[in-house]
Amino acid sequence: MNETSLQSVSPGRAMRAIGSGIVSVLLGDWLLWGAAPGLSFSFFGGVLLILIWINRPRHLVADPIAWSVSLLFLGALTASAIELCFTNVCVVLVLLGILAGETFFSDRPTGWPRWLSMVGAMLQCPGRYLWAVEHSLRAGFSSPSSFVRVLAWMMGVALPVGILLVIFASILGTGNAVLGAWFSAWLGALWKWIVSFDFSIGRFFLWFFLGMTSLALIRPKIVGKVWWGVTERVRRFPLPEKTGRAFWRSALILVSLNALFLIANGIDAVCLWANRSLPAGVTYAAFVHQGTGQLIAATILAAAVLAWLFNQDEKLTGNPALRIGAL
């Protein structure tokens, strides 16, 4: 691992990452604080996905693994928006960590080395605030170009536009009753929001948590030598002497599990969509809630089986039939 790949960050990229962290806190507060879980959680997950892509190195924009994980992540967000549950949240968090690991630890072999590196980086996420302060000061003093550019944009573009909008809205509002009513209502709502803003401990904790985790996902910290020593020992299983037996074992496992899950989902489709009736003695509440824990366990076990199968030698896991079966 080239440690300078994460430690040496240009002022422009550092300020982009810090700005992305600020955006995640602001949007996270708006989407999550006081909102019902579900759709808001999915929207915020989409925000984090966009911010990770914005902060990706240019040479990784066309990475097929990142595109595949991103599409899976969007599917998980859709499922969370429909029904937010423990399993969906776990899938979203795992896919988000995998995407960040594939992005910012791309100089390590794909798979467990990158993913475990991201786990180690997340364990050190509180230190991202110190990193943000350090690089903000460095951009402001030692390399003022990017810092001054941001300030110049705020002072030279955003501020004049905002002032002119207020002036012209005030003038036009005096001659237009509808626009004047809108402008007065907007100012009243803004003032009411300022004086009634909830500065609670819980909200401050939400800001702290969102900033800490988003910075760790957008610009993770390189992990120490001890962690590297552990991850270096995570190797693929050696290629067996009888590769044909290993291939058919893996293929039959995937075919059997796919068939079993297809039968389980087919029962749902037939009972709820086609017949629109349940067998005698089975209520809708029992059909929905019975076996939820077992379903979560089966999903986690299926993920563990896939991880085990694809930790085999690449001469086996690179087979298109196995990849299709896993997908």
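The above is record 1. Record 2 follows with the same two-line structure.
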Amino acid sequence: MNGDVHEHVETLIIGGSQSGLATGHQLSQRGRPFLIVDGHQRVGDAWRHRWDSLRLFTTARYDGLPSMPFPAAPTRYPTKDETADYLEAYAARFHLPVMTGVTVDCVTRRGPVFEATAGDRVFTSDNVVVATGAYHTPRIPALAESLDSGIVQLHSSRYRRPDQLREGGALVVGAGNSGAEIALELSRDHPVWLSGRDTGQEPTRAGSLPDRLAMPVMWFVASRLLTVGSPLGRKVRDHFLHPPRGIPLGRVRRQDLAAAGVERVPRVASVSSGLPMLEDGRTLDVDNVVWCTGFDIDLTWIDLPLTLTDGYPEQDRGIVPEHPGLYIVGLPFLRSLSSVLLGGVGRDAWYIADHIDNRAPAATAELAA
């Protein structure tokens, strides 16, 4: 075994954002030992490194992790920096053992235990919880390489603010929530084209009186009714995940985009003379392209045979049956439509921590043998 061996820990949680912290808190409540490792330098950095104007899609009332409400007015939509600070405060309040600056390169199994390597460090554990979330490798179409070298290209993961772009027109590719919000922001200083399938929009405007009245009902539906345990929930899950597609627009409305002069255009089909060509044959003479085309989940660092569907491992509410002791949390529709939202990970974390707590005696006996 190469590298420096860290002391054995019962449960290693990989990822220190909301899913990992919520799972750690639930394990702490049960008296189970664990360690959280995260590649960022500070808890909450996964949020700090997103674009400046980003806000959560749910109000603070629905953004709290277990045992700690979000510290903001219930109807406020928190900023990404407020969210990052909340996660950091959560880890501190409950004294969660988080080791930052540790990126796990590989997870495998050595006999009865898991082995995780992070550079020259090695961790062994009875259980591994993968809490790295759904957003890993930026998905950029291959045709991007054929665009003129003078066009500024940014994926949404690298976009921070409008001043990163050149003067001139901007094409935003991907018309989900990220694309719509970035397109609207860019429209203040640029002619903007928004390319992609219309994902629809929520029935009420975010922050309006109808929205505040409807939100408790919508949250109940998203967290209690649309679950993997119900036929309707499974149908909705398959609609959004197989293949992956954007959810309806939240804060930005179609009329907001139209009023700002954002032109909706068909999908980008190819490149002509270094410029993006649309499905309708038009070529757009733009100086900037922002790819809001989502992410591919990357679990190649898990050196274990996994059965995958659309990139997601086969699991039962986060339990990976192929490998006892391996769990995954923070994926869309792990249990319900709300699983990927800040306020929805608590139920998933509770379920996984309970399963770890119940299997602990058996795992200990296996190690002793």
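The longest helix spans residues 345-368.
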